[in-house]
Amino acid sequence: MAPDARRRAILDAAQARFAADPYPEVSLAAIAADAGASEALIHKYFDGKAGLYVEVVQGELDRLAQRQHAALDALPPNTNAQDHVRASLEVYLDEIAASPRAWLTTFRDDPSDPAAETLRAARAAWVDQLQTHLLPDESPRRHYALWGYFGFLDAACREWIHRGCPPQERWPLIEAALGSLQGALGDWGR
Q: Given this model, what pLDDT does residue 56 score?
């Protein structure tokens, strides 16, 4: 198998394993077997299990960002901030509903997780993205409101997953998330 194809096979196998089980429960031997590769090749291409996991998480975050950007680009000009957030949130919930276990195993807020810094950087990018839809404001309240929104969203999404991601509860979840952000902001600002 060509190096690029082998690398892709390893990534695909790892993605499936990490989506099904938490990081500590996934073995390199299982990933290697699924990919038809050796553990030595995983170390060669990805610097071991931690490096492979970080790459899988980063790939998922990149795909999510692409889908969210596409949804935002499809909005008409002069769309208000709340509708930007709603469109982004709809894509986010689509991803969660498609693979709830993977979301739970990835977004567990564990500082010892090898991808913890990758996830924090993604959150910071999401906060920055949210800022672009609001009037400029560098106040501490805005800072905590935006970061707090994602904390609310994490907790609400965990509950939605535990309830089986019921489609009829999707809009109430979106409305609650938007309400939490608006309450924290005090005003949408645009």
A: 94
